[in-house]
Amino acid sequence: MSPVVVLVSPLAIGGPRASFALERLGLTALHLPTALDGRTPGQRQPVADAAFAALAADLPRAGVGAVVLGRSASPAQAAATAGLVAAIKAESPAALIVAEWPDDQRDLAGVDVAVIGLKRLAALSGQPLDDPTALGAAARALGPARVVVTAAPALMSGKTATALVGSTDILLAEVTNHTDAPAAPGDLVGALFAARLLAGADDEKALMLTAATLFEIAARSRAAGSAELDLPAQQAAIIRPTAMVDMRRLGGVRRRAVARPTPLAGL
């Protein structure tokens, strides 16, 4: 399968989250970090601009299946990233470009799928997004054809959703709401969604599997007492998640289980 280029900051402890998830799903991840993280807080150092540009120039352009982008550490990195994305799209027109919503909007040139959290989307829109209709309008204003919104409002009480906003419809993947569970970073969400699409899933199934994996990893990490997503310990949920997900479109309801649900201890 075609490799995936990953430009994100690695996790301080446990290795690159996005690359780890991609490789557990059978993809080759070509990882270029935007920053280097130490094992203690405050030890994050951006990769020097010249080094980042040189490493980006060394990445392949042809035969790339997807690109997963996190936030750039500097304007120069953003410019180098935009150039790399343009070059990859020129050589690999079918490459899927998935990006966590950046601080610098220039990063979004050529992006097919943007990933953003509900709070950040609400701040950008300047209004509360407490229903899917308002959320859809705000997400479409961002520009990309598809926008994945995490921690989105669900239609059912006691649930939270991962939403996929397209040009004409909104898909909601609803799971049980656990407010104290570790949050999923946008680069991991984007990597999981991209991997499912590359494997041939349609948007609905890719969203369902992504939401199921994120919920299961977060729930099991919390039950194990971890304050962060413990991907190595919970990697089975990356390959074959078993959490129940309610799939909805505005005006219709679909309930689909990824597999036969298994009890999540302590939940």
How would you write the strand order of the largest sheet?
Answer: 2-1-5-6-7-8-9-10-11-12
Instruction: Catalogue the unreliable spans.
Output: 259-267
Query: End-to-end distance, in Å?
Result: 37 Å
Largest sheet: 10 strands, mixed
What's the overall average pLDDT, rounded?
Answer: 86
H/E order of the elements? EHEEEHEHEEHHEEEHHHEE
Task: Compute the number of strand runs.
Answer: 12
SS field, number of helical segments: 8
Calculate Rg over CA atoms: 18 Å
Residues in helix, %: 25-40%
The structure class reads: alpha/beta
Into which percentage range does the β-strand content fall? Answer: 15-25%
Task: Tell the overall outline.
Answer: globular
Structure description:
The chain is α/β, with parallel strands linked by helices and 267 residues long. It has eight helices and twelve strands. The strands form two sheets. A ten-stranded mixed sheet has the order 2-1-5-6-7-8-9-10-11-12. It is globular. The termini are far apart.
